[in-house]
Write a structure and sequence with these properties.
Strand order of the largest sheet: 1-2-3-6-5-4
Number of strands: 13
Number of helices: 5
Order of helices and strands: HHEEEHEEEEEEEEEHEH
CATH class of the largest domain: Mainly Beta
CATH topology of the largest domain: Thrombin, subunit H
Number of domains: 2
Radius of gyration: 34 Å
Helix content: 25-40%
CATH architecture of the largest domain: Beta Barrel
Distance between the termini: 105 Å
Strand content: 25-35%
Largest sheet: 6 strands, antiparallel, barrel
Amino acid sequence: MRWPAVALVAAGALLPSGVTQAAMSPVRTAVSATFLLECGNYTGTAWQFSPGRYLTANHVVAHCRVPLIVSSSGTHASKVVLHNTIDDIAELMSSFIAPSSVPLSRSVLTTNERLYVRAAPGGVLGTTSGTLLRESSVDGIPSIELSASVNPGSSGGVVVDEAGAAVGLVQKKSSDPATGIAIRQPFITQFLQRKLVGTKVGPLQMARIHSLATGILWLGVGALFVPTAFLWWRAQRRHRLATKSVQIYDKVPVVLGRVFWDGDK
């Protein structure tokens, strides 16, 4: 257990930064569903969108095998089950189930709409708020730009609207330090439905697919081997019987010859 990180998480969960108490309602679910994510020497943010399933930015988990979700109760191992290096999204699966899940929004955003960011910049969970500046495409990825600061460690954080639903996933900060860039929600849904080019299954899913493929291969080998072995055995048996019969037939003249020859004597 990493107590310093846990203490920071607990402190961040209790005292979100940049948001007044009156504005806590929209982010209440996000507070209990968002966590610090440790991946080797890197830290980022992950949030639960369904029990045991988390979303984060792919570049956060690209260089480690076991991302650790840090909660107030300790650290919890997770596995990358789906990732897209082109669009910088990754899905994690863990036996750790958070108290709540952030639903994915289906609403249409409007300019100057109030949004909230729940993330762990610098390893400390906190909440900031801002407004939607514009919807754009950054590096070919449908994104939203908002007037909320994004710092190292914020990557993978969740952006929620006034209804508390996820409208984006924090990707990076823009050239303006006071502006953050997040991947737009409909794009996240397409990723989860595996409709994006470049989406690949992670090690856990790949292991399952490999096991299934290996099982099918062995079934195929067995299906070919058993009949083949049986046919070979039957051919060998017939050959032995035929050879034995020939040997018996070859001995008949010799036996008869000896009988008659000895009889003449």
